[in-house]
Amino acid sequence: MTYTWYLAKIKNGEPAILEKDKFDDLKYFSWNELLGMRNQLSANTHNLAEVYFSKQIKLS
């Protein structure tokens, strides 16, 4: 399986849910918070955390 992840920087404003019929919440988590909630993550996010903490990828 191939995963695609994106890194984005917000230059101004604040992210907002624009498709309210599809999404009901928007939250931010630090990497350490993600580490502590692995069993609650989607498979894609779990894999992202695994490769990040094993230093297989570097985000900047």
Oligomer: single chain
Helix and strand pattern: HH
Specify the number of helices.
Answer: 2
Strand content: under 5%
Mean pLDDT: 89
Low-pLDDT regions: none
Q: What is the count of β-strands? A: 0
In this structure, how is the largest beta sheet organized? none
Q: What does the radius of gyration come to?
A: 13 Å
Report, as a whole number of angstroms, the end-to-end distance: 25 Å
Structural class: mainly alpha
Helix content: 25-40%
Shape: globular
Q: Keywords, please?
A:
mainly alpha, globular, 60 residues, 0% strand, 2 helices
Written description of the protein model:
This is Nudix hydrolase domain-containing protein. It comes from Candidatus Woesebacteria bacterium RIFCSPHIGHO2_01_FULL_38_9b. The protein is an all-alpha fold. It has a domain at 23-60. 28% of the residues lie in helices and 0% in strands. The chain has two helices and no strands. The chain has helices at residues 31-36, 43-53. The longest helix has 11 residues, at 43-53. The model has no long low-confidence stretch (mean pLDDT 89).
